[in-house]
Write a structure and sequence with these properties.
The structure holds two protein chains of two kinds.
Chain A (H helix, E strand, L loop, with lengths): L8 H14 L1 E7 L5 E5 L3 E3 L8 H12 L2 E3 L17 H5 L5 E11 L2 E10 L4 E11 L3 H17 L8 E8 L7 E8 L6 E6 L3 E6 L5 E6 L6 E6 L5 E5 L5 E6 L5 E6 L6 E6 L5 E3 L7 E6 L5 E6 L6 E6 L5 E3 L7 E6 L5 E8 L2 E8 L5 E3 L7 E5 L5 E8 L2 E8 L5 E6 L3 E7 L11
Parallel strand pairs in A: 2-4, 2-5, 3-5
Antiparallel strand pairs in A: 1-30, 5-6, 6-7, 8-9, 8-31, 9-10, 11-12, 12-13, 13-14, 15-16, 16-17, 17-18, 19-20, 20-21, 21-22, 23-24, 24-25, 25-26, 27-28, 28-29, 29-30
Chain B lengths: L1 H17 L37 H11 L3 E3 L9 H16 L5 E6 L6 H21 L7 E7 L10 H7 L1 E6 L1
Parallel strand pairs in B: 2-3
Antiparallel strand pairs in B: 1-4, 2-4
Helix pairs in contact in B: 1-2, 2-3, 3-4
Classes of the chains: A mainly beta, B alpha+beta.
């Protein structure tokens, strides 16, 4: 992929090839069987040596994870077609499958694979999508995610978010020596992790630019918090904020022109807006309380943020150009770190509920609040760009892990990495670069 | 249970330091938090002439407080309790008596709640200690504050005893 950053390229390659094998398993901890029944026939492999990435397995895992599909077990299949001419719709109607996916992978040229797939409506007996891709082995997983996106869109009528990425921070503590912190970026299913920044001091608060090319984050590499922005395509990075006091909680405006930050340069944690072209700062909040964790509404008009001005941390909303703040949360004595869904209609945040810190969502039209998780140290929720899933960090047996929950709370899963402590996931925007369709 | 253990440790130390028990030994609970973690060694001691006028018991008590470099806080709070006050007063007196010393105050939080909010809360804790030291006569330009939020826990377990250790401001001599 193109994420190779210059200065880590040499060391990074080793790390990645190791990480790619060591990574993770995904465990669905709460599921539903009410999704659309779909049959995915394992794609045929007409290649001399099977590449590692099994396209149809990736598609199947994506769709199962979304909670919108009931993936039918392969052992029940009556036939296993790979070509259009071999499809017998009756075989799939018997299984009550609404949709059918078939496909093949063949060697187009040395090192180049041609992937074909077709999606059928079983009851109408028609093909509803079909595409062909020619890519190198390194892109087979991203082709699989694109296929998942197309199937998701055709069946649910909404865009999929499988071709996106997640950024997160890991902390590893070797038996001897000091801890190592890494800012990493992986595919939306946790595979293909790549290290963006590595430090002996804590890293925090990764925030995607709206174009998905840059990450802003907080680094303690100078023994105090400073905000940096790093380009993922060329690895270049810039120091954005090193004012006296804390420099934290970066959040990009939807147009990518401004960054909201929390600074305490005037003595107290306040929210500021920095223009990315001139670096000019405008102070947004004026309150003796802590004001932090800003997030922009998708139309760029409003900022929501955490403030303890009423005595405990709660979520407030104000105009991004200033003015008074309206309190949004009233349930419970700890509501913090809110961010918007892409449609601007709901927000997700951390809420203390029955003694635990859990992931909650609120509909902004009627302010109804719903708690989605039942674990006790959940944090850093972030919507998928299609608003259907929320990724967050939680703790299992004393270790930080990533988890996701569907926005309706019905499907949950854990991303089980083999080692290290993982925190602060941030879901990327849609990636418009990754299109290999023919 | 834990408090009692602290008290016992404090008592032992106080008795060892004081040489004789006496009525002073009934008070050292104000020192508290001994069991939290190994304290850093105090890089400076009181060299002022004023020290001579202090009774031995008071000197011992101040030495004991000066050996403590961590003050602790309640959840989501930066309020300084009596225990913390005694430690801060001892360090402030030491700093006033030794004007060449500079310190940094490092604010920290437990893991509960959100990271960015905790970064601000950690700063507030460091600032609370700073404010008290200034009131006690330490010049502001000798104090630096920094917040690590919840990023530098002393204790990694997920229980109140650990969380209490982590909700702290550290007084670090430069």
């Amino acid at each position: 992929m193109r994420l190779v950053t210059g200065w880590i390229a040499a060391a990074g390659m080793l790390l990645w090839s190791f990480a790619a094998h060591a990574v993770l398993t995904i465990e669905i901890t709460r599921g539903v069987d009410t999704g659309a029944p779909i049959a995915i026939v394992p794609f045929s492999w007409e290649v001399p040596a099977k590449p590692e990435q099994n396209v149809s397995d990736v598609v199947e895992a994506d769709l199962a994870r979304s909670g919108r599909f009931a993936v039918l077990p392969r052992k029940d299949f009556i036939s296993t077609p790979h070509e259009d001419k071999d499809v017998v719709f009756k075989d799939w109607r018997i299984l009550k499958s609404e949709a059918l996916v078939i496909g093949s992978v063949r060697l187009a040229a040395p090192g180049k694979y041609q992937v074909q797939f077709r999606l059928y409506d079983v009851f109408k007996q028609t093909q509803i999508a079909g595409f062909r891709y020619t890519v190198g082995a390194d892109l087979l997983r991203s082709v699989a995610h694109q296929i998942s996106d197309i199937i998701y869109q055709k069946i649910t009528g909404e865009p999929g978010a499988f071709s996106t990425r997640i950024a997160y921070v890991t902390r590893e503590e070797p038996p001897r020596g000091s801890p190592v912190y890494k800012l990493q970026v992986a595919d939306s299913d946790g595979f293909n992790p790549q290290t963006v920044v590595r430090s002996a001091e804590p890293l925090m608060s990764p925030a995607w630019s709206p174009d998905g090319i840059r990450l802003a984050y907080v680094s303690f590499e100078d023994k105090r918090s400073k905000v940096y922005v790093q380009n993922l395509t060329d690895g270049r990075r810039e120091l954005l904020a090193e004012f006296t006091g804390i420099n934290s909680a970066p959040a990009w405006s939807p147009d990518g022109q401004r960054l909201a930050l929390t600074l305490s340069r005037d003595g107290n944690a306040e929210i500021y807006i920095m223009r990315m072209d001139t670096r000019a700062l405008t102070r947004l909040t004026f309150d003796a309380a802590i004001d932090t964790e800003a997030s922009w509404s998708p139309d760029g008009r409003d900022i929501i943020f955490t403030s303890d001005r009423a005595g405990s941390p709660q979520i407030y909303r104000m105009n991004a150009s200033g003015g008074s703040a309206e309190r949004l949360t009233f349930d419970g004595d700890y509501n913090a770190r809110a961010s918007y869904a892409a449609d601007g209609k709901s927000i997700t945040f951390v809420s203390r509920n029955q003694g635990g810190y859990r992931i909650a969502v609120m509909r902004l039209d009627n302010k109804t609040q719903q708690v989605l998780t039942d674990t006790s140290l959940d944090e850093s929720p972030s919507f998928a760009p299609n608003g259907r899933m929320i990724i967050y960090a939680t703790e299992v047996r004393g270790r930080g892990v990533l988890a996701s929950v569907s926005a309706d709370g019905r499907v949950r899963q854990l991303f089980k990495f083999e080692e290290g402590d993982i925190r602060e996931p941030a879901w990327s925007p849609y990636n418009r670069e990754l299109q290999y369709k023919e | 249970m834990k408090n009692r253990k602290h008290l016992a440790v404090s008592l032992l130390i106080a008795m060892a330091l004081a040489g004789c028990a006496g009525e002073e030994a009934t008070k050292p609970a104000t020192g508290g938090e001994k069991g939290a973690a190994p304290a850093q060694t105090a890089p400076a001691t009181d060299q002022s002439a004023a020290g001579a006028s202090l009774s031995d018991r008071e000197k011992q008590r101040r030495a004991e407080l000066l050996a403590q470099h961590r003050v602790h806080f309640a959840f989501d709070s930066s309020a300084i309790d009596d225990e913390a006050r005694a430690i801060i007063e001892a360090h402030a007196a030491n700093l006033v008596a030794n004007p060449q010393i500079k310190i940094s105050l490092e604010g920290n939080c437990d893991e509960r709640g959100t990271r960015e909010y905790n970064l601000a809360l950690g700063e507030r804790r460091a600032q609370a200690v700073e404010k008290m030291m200034k009131v006690l006569g330490v010049a502001g330009n000798r104090i630096k504050t920094v917040s690590y939020g919840e990023e530098k826990p002393l204790c990694q377990e997920h229980n109140e005893s650990c969380w209490r250790q982590n909700r702290r401001a550290e007084i670090v001599y430069k």
